[in-house]
Amino acid sequence: MLAEQVRSGQGQALDAYLAQRVFAGADLTVAEPDSGDVAGYAAWLETYSAGLAIERAAVEAIH
What we know:
This protein is mainly α. It has helices at about 1-10, 15-20, 35-60.
């Protein structure tokens, strides 16, 4: 898409090119996040973040 915008966009900004030529007339659907998914991801991210210290220690022990 970017190459086509450069080739035929006639100097038009990428966001304008996409809005007017690529996605013109496209239906827009907005999805709201599921609260259970958000909570699950937050819990996973907390566990992952806590594990980074373990990873860092392992790397330091190897070097």
